[in-house]
Every structure is written in structure tokens, then in C-alpha cells.
Records
---
Amino acid sequence: MTYVEHQYGTFQGRDAIRRGIDGIMLKPPNNEMTEFPVDWYIIDEQRGWIVFRIWNRMRDPGDGSVHQEANFTLLKYAGDMQFCYQEDIYNPKPVEDMVRGYLARKQELAG
């Protein structure tokens, strides 16, 4: 299994991917991303690929406002209910701006 995350690098093997994702997503403020709704998807059966747009949505800061930014993901099917490749494609600047706005709103609500 290969996981390509353009900001953090390429991870090879399920254990390395798990360690890498945990190292990224368990730290603040990334641990505030709690929902990942899929906006749309395309399945290419011939290639065994799935492409989708997913929202990286932050936890409600306390006022019901939604803070999210999208990325595109490519999955490649390996057979036997397993994928062999994932690549997340996004522009980090809008994600950074969204997170900054979320943290500012959360701090504002906390007083």
C-alpha cells in the first residue's frame, strides 16, 4: 500500500501509513477535523480507480458554523477488498486559511 500526502510525504506499507496518519491527525489542530463527508465520487471499473471530493470538516466551534475545505482523493483497487494506493490532492493554503479561521472563531467564542 502506498499513501501519497503532498504536504507530508509518501508512506509505504500499512504500518507506516498508520503511524504517519496518526502523527498528523492526532495533533492539534488536525485532531479537530472530525468529519469527512464525501461530496461526489466517480468509479472507473476498468482501471479499478475511485476518485472523490471529500470535505475536511472541523468540529463545531460552538456556534454551529461550518469550517471545512475540500480535497480530491484517488484510490486504486488491488483486489480482494483492498486498495493499494491512495493520493490526497489539495492546495494547502486554503486549508491553512480555513484552520486559522476556525481557531480564531473558537477563541472568540471562548471569550
Note: Helices lie at 14-25, 92-110.
---
Amino acid sequence: MEADPQSRIERALLAKDYAAVRQLLRNRPAPALAEVIRALPIEQQVVVFRILPRHLAGRAFEFLDLSHQTPLLKAMGQEEVAAVLDHMAPDDRTMLFEELQRPSPSA
């Protein structure tokens, strides 16, 4: 019995088989990629964003909600963040920046 795609991706990440991860992810539409990413621990999310082609990483990032985007941005290096943001649609990038500038409700 073949494992579900999410399990295959997780196993490949644990095995550090990044070529397999890239192969499993490369033909998925951005919303489906965002679903895969959401289900992973933050450390593996960062690895996936490093593996994905920049344009695809940017598109998938747009489909994550702010509660997933913020920790991911904090976990990535400055150059990775710049590359992802550079490949986002301008409207989505502006919306993200506006959300990040809002005071938190607990403040």
C-alpha cells in the first residue's frame, strides 16, 4: 500500500532526501503546496521553502494565512525572506506588510 503524499513528503524530509521532496512538490498548485506546508513543523517548512523554486515558494506563501506566514518569516534567513517576498504578487505583499504593522490585540 502506497503512503499518502503528505506522508511521503514528511518521510523524504526526515531522510533529508531533498531531491525527492522537490520532485514530490514541484507540480503542485500553490494552494496545495500551502496545505502541505501548513501541516509541517516550522523547521521542515523552512526546508521546503529552501527547496522550492523561488517563484513557487512566493506563490505558495501567498496562500498561507498570517498565523503561518509570521513564524515562517521569523525562521527564515534574511535572503530567503527577500526572495519569497520578491516573488509574491504586489497586492499580497502589501497586505502582508500592513498586517505585520498592526498592533497585536494583546498589546
Note: The mean pLDDT is 88.
---
Amino acid sequence: MSTASFIAGDWGTSNLRLFLCNTEGVALDSTSGPGAAESHGRFANVLNSLAAGWQERHGPLKAVLCGMVGSTIGWVEAPYLPCPAKPDQLADACKSLEGGRVHIVPGLSCRNRFNAPDVMRGEETQILGALELTEALAQGRHLLCLPGTHTKWAAVDDGLIQEFFSAPTGEVFAVLNEHSVLVRNHGGAHDRSDSAAFREGLAGFNGFPQGQLLHRLFECRARQLAGEFTAPAAEAYLSGLLIASDTYGALRIMEGSITAKPITLIGSPELTQRYASALSLNGCESHQVDGSAAALAGLAQIHRRIAEGSHS
């Protein structure tokens, strides 16, 4: 068995995933715990409790953490690093805690294409990992999409994170699905797996791209009243409309040479596949990278950079 070298952690608002890693960043073991919101005021205790067994078996281990642990609701605020940003700058800008035993990765900020401030926290580590896992991303200009609650569209140029903008696609879906009359599946089992209804949502939006998203959302209710959809089908249709709108808009914002190459999708396989389908309808090829693997690869790269700096 490989020797344990460090602890990698993705500490989001709702969940914490910790990994015991060897020097190459391969996970030897993993565990989970409460998110940043629930850990407020006791981050050190949570980390120490979850990692106690690893520390006992392998001795003192440093931890590299990304995500909301570095936000205003986190352990300590790790200031956003402005774009354009190089991968090694993320490691150099980490916030050190517990006598250098814990390092927290900063997020990224930029002035996006709408001349508005934008930020990401956690996704920067996934991008860093994707650059390492996908060799082709190291050269040239590429468009990356990280689907999620707040989907990020990021431009990378020769490995340099140049700019990005956010779309709260997942959050809008959750709000409309759970707090509006459009789907009326409140309290029921959420199921976006109706692939036919999802594809119909994608095609429906792309069939009338001149229409605003607001002009299409009421269909989720009207099609149920007309007997065309069940509530689960309406839920899948809503997902299709939102992802189609997100994708269509992003491609036009970033149109040009950046979208001529395959677009890299980073996230959960189920969600990246949904975006791949939307991109395909727009004539775009895509390449999918598992979000968990990307985050782990990014954290390992940051750990290596920190270790090299401490020995220089």
C-alpha cells in the first residue's frame, strides 16, 4: 500500500469530503462530514475528529482544503485571487492555519463580460485538476464549463485562467421546482431522469431561441394541465429549458475561436452529460472530466507546490 502523504478536502456549504492521499495525489481512503454552514466555529474540531484515525496510523499529516471553508462563512476568509491567474499562484496564495498544518485554497475573482464582478470558490481547484488530467488544455485557448448550483463558464489560455462568468442554473431550477406552481411536485420524489421530457426541453428552447427563457417557463405548468406531462416529466422539461438557455447564451457570449474546440465539462457525470447533450444540439463537441477527480488532482497539485516551497 502507498504511503500516506497528506489530506485533501473539498469543504462545501453543505458537505465535506476528505481524502487520505499519497504523494501522487491518489486517494487511499476517504470520509465525509458536515459542511461549512454546520461547522461554523468548530472547523478545527471537525477536521481533527474526522482525520484522527489517519493521524494515529500515519503520523502528522498536512491538509489542503478548498471550497466554502475559505469563505466568509468558513474557517478563515481566503481572499479571492484576481484573474488572470496562473495555477501556481493559487498555491502561493493559500491561507495557512494551525502552524502551517492546514492550507486553504483561495477562490478567484474577475470582472466578467457583462462588466460585473464575479467570483468562484472551489471550482478553481477543479479547473487546476482538469488542466493536469487533460493534457490538451495546457496549450491554446479553451472554454470550460462547470455545471452546478452556480454554473461557471471559464476561459483558459495556455493554462492561464483568464476570465469566467456564472449562471445560477441549478439554484433557479431548485427554486422554481420547490417554491413555484410551475411543476407542483412539492414534497414528492424529485426525478429529472425522464430523458424524453428533458430532450424535449432542450429542443423546445432551441426551436425558438429568439424567445426569452421567461416566455417558456410557464409551459411546465400548462403542459401538465393539458395532460401532456406528469409532474416528474415537467421537472425534467424544466431542467432541459434551463440548461438549453444557459448553454445557448454562453456559446453566444463566448462565440469565436474559443468555441471551435471541444468544450471541457467538469462536474458530476450525470450533470455533465446533460450539458453535453445541450452542447451537441448547438453543434459543439465536448469532453467530460469527473468533478471529484478534478478537485482531487487540483488539491494534490497545490500540495506539491506548497511542499516544494517549504523545501526551497
Note: The first helix runs from residue 43 to 58.
